[in-house]
Design goal:
By secondary structure, the chain is of the alpha+beta class. The chain has 14 helices and 18 strands. The strands form three sheets. It has an eight-stranded mixed sheet with strand order 8-12-13-18-17-16-15-14. A five-stranded mixed beta barrel has the order 3-4-5-7-6. A three-stranded antiparallel sheet has the order 9-11-10, with no helix packed on it. A hairpin with a 7-residue loop joins β4 and β5. The structure holds one RNA strand.
Length: 476
RNA sequence: UCCUCGGUAGCUCAAUGGUGGAGCAACCGGCUGUUAACCGGUAGGUUGCUGGUUCGAGUCCAGCCCGGGGAGCCA
């Protein structure tokens, strides 16, 4: 439909979107076009005025000039409020001396949808906290227009990266019967009546009466399932929603978020880290090259060092250290940490930030963590004390990727599950993968929103999710 | 869940325990090139809720609700 010619009176007029005008300006200069969009601002004077028009197809607005002499409904147009939807016909002209490269000299302006006096989005700075309360309107602001366009491009870049490498995209289930996925509290999925659930002989809720005939939850990770596909397709990835019912109240946690989980067979931890580094560099490059206006905006108004930092990452090798080396660096740093640095304890946020922001000043992989602080499926190293796990820490956001080589030796995996009191019957299928052609394999999870935060500089996860779900908050 | 800071006009913020204000937005008017336009005017308030102290509470105290920042858990 867009770009198609249609009859307007006796003259054909091309209906265009702002993206076309920006990308292909020369083609439209001195031509009559029609643009539909929403008014960002309207500044009228005695005999002329300016509308900043945004149609959502590009970060930029188009300046529309309207004059009393050439517009029959000048007086009405002068009163069009911010947020109104309008249709504008006019001639595109170059404006070399002005702030913008071109503008639209209107010949006809029609109000398509009025915006009432109490429209909350004003042509001024708003706090992000306020805009969260009007999540249905905030995509019309510069910041959120840029964030959500980058979100879309980033999803595409991730698919592009994996598809170009021949990875198979796997839709792992959203509803799962595993409650041993090992990543925190889960949301129950049920059709039972909460007021009068069926009870069994022990007067507990009888889940055999439930929809699936058993207890089910929303997934906290597609990893276990995607391992099955890695052992059939070799290189695979998931990219979908994930749900955690943790009572986490931070700028980096949401109850519903998206995660990318590649899994590669015939591959070890080193291959896994190489893949993660390639992917991070690829998606950053893609956004820098395909969202220039948005990145310029973030660099100017959100984080002044953003572009330099991202360019630096694309062009530098990520640092690699072992957990044990990390502990050594922290112990010798002389820094006063709130939490004690001790081999066997997990690294705290303050430790991670010190490593990535102060010591290396770039992304750093930390690998070979003590097995007692990591999940059952991670491969036990030869030292029997550590597992082949890795976290990628980045300045500003902290942990963005967590991954591991998986334990492919059935006997050791069973020992680990027994030690951690994990029900082997429920995960029989997972153990089967080791029994029938099991090979070394590895994978990681990338928090999609954390990647967006890292690339845009936006520091709260609630501002990179269209309609965020967090503890005690599920509006819209 | 814990620590911490905050809640005053639609928004962003002022106001020593003593008559609640400003800028922006809205509305009315002015202005021949604005782009966070500018200039003049008008309107706009149960100071988050409940209770307490006081002659008097936006201000002090208690409880609750909501939000920010930090921590834990993690992606």
């Amino acid at each position: 439909m867009l770009g198609k010619k249609f009859k307007q009176g006796a003259f054909p007029m091309e209906k265009v979107v702002v993206r076309q005008l920006v990308r292909d300006t020369k083609r439209y200069i001195n031509k009559e076009v029609e643009v539909n969009g929403w008014v960002r601002s309207n500044r009228d004077q005695k005999s002329f005025g300016f509308v900043s028009l945004n149609d959502g197809t590009h970060f930029n607005t188009v300046q529309v000039v309207y004059e009393k002499d050439s517009l029959a409904n000048f007086d009405e147009v002068a009163k069009f409020r911010v947020g109104s939807a309008v249709s504008i016909q006019g001639k595109l002209v170059e404006t070399p001396q002005a702030k913008q490269a071109f503008e639209l000299k209107a010949t006809r302006i029609i109000l398509l949808g009025d915006s009432s006096e109490d429209y909350p989005i004003q042509p001024k700075r708003h706090s992000k906290e306020f805009l969260r309360e009007v999540a249905h309107l905030r995509p019309r602001t510069n910041l959120f227009s840029a964030v959500f366009r980058v979100r879309s491009l980033l999803a595409y870049a991730i698919h592009k990266f994996f598809q170009e490498k021949g990875f198979v995209y796997v839709h792992t289930p959203i509803i799962t019967a595993n409650d041993a996925e090992g990543a925190g509290e889960m949301f129950r999925v049920t059709t039972l009546d909460p007021k009068e659930p069926p009870l069994n002989e022990d007067r507990n809720v009888d889940f055999s009466e439930d929809f699936f005939g058993r207890r089910t939850n929303l997934t906290v990770s597609g990893q276990l399932e995607v391992e099955a596909f890695a052992l059939a397709f070799r290189d695979v990835y998931t990219f979908g929603p994930t749900f955690r019912a943790e009572n986490s109240n931070t700028a980096r946690h949401a109850a519903e978020f998206w995660m990318i989980e590649p899994e590669i067979a015939f591959a070890d931890l080193k291959d896994n880290m190489n893949l993660a580094e390639d992917m991070v560099k690829y998606i950053i490059s893609y956004i820098l090259n395909n969202a220039a206006e948005e990145m310029e905006f973030f660099n100017k108004f959100v984080d002044k060092g953003l572009k330099d930092r991202l360019n630096n990452i694309v062009n530098s090798e990520f640092a690699h250290i072992t957990y044990t080396e990390a502990i050594g660096i922290l112990e010798e740093s002389g820094e006063k940490f709130e939490y004690a640095v001790k081999w066997g304890n997990d690294l705290q946020t303050e430790h991670e930030r010190y490593l990535t922001e102060k010591v290396f000043k770039k992304p750093v992989f930390v690998k070979d963590y003590p097995k007692d602080i990591k999940a059952f499926y991670m491969r036990v190293n030869d030292d029997k004390k550590t597992v082949a796990a890795m976290d990628l820490l980045v300045p500003g956001v902290g942990e963005i990727i967590g991954g591991s080589q998986r334990e492919e030796r059935a006997d050791i995996l069973e020992q680990r599950m027994a030690a951690l009191d994990i029900n082997q019957e429920e995960l029989r299928w997972y153990l089967d993968l080791r029994k029938f052609g099991g090979v070394k394999h590895a994978g990681f999870g990338l928090g999609f929103e954390r990647a967006i935060m890292y690339i845009t500089g936006v520091s709260n996860i609630r501002d990179v999710v269209p309609f965020p779900r967090t503890v005690n908050s599920c509006e819209y």
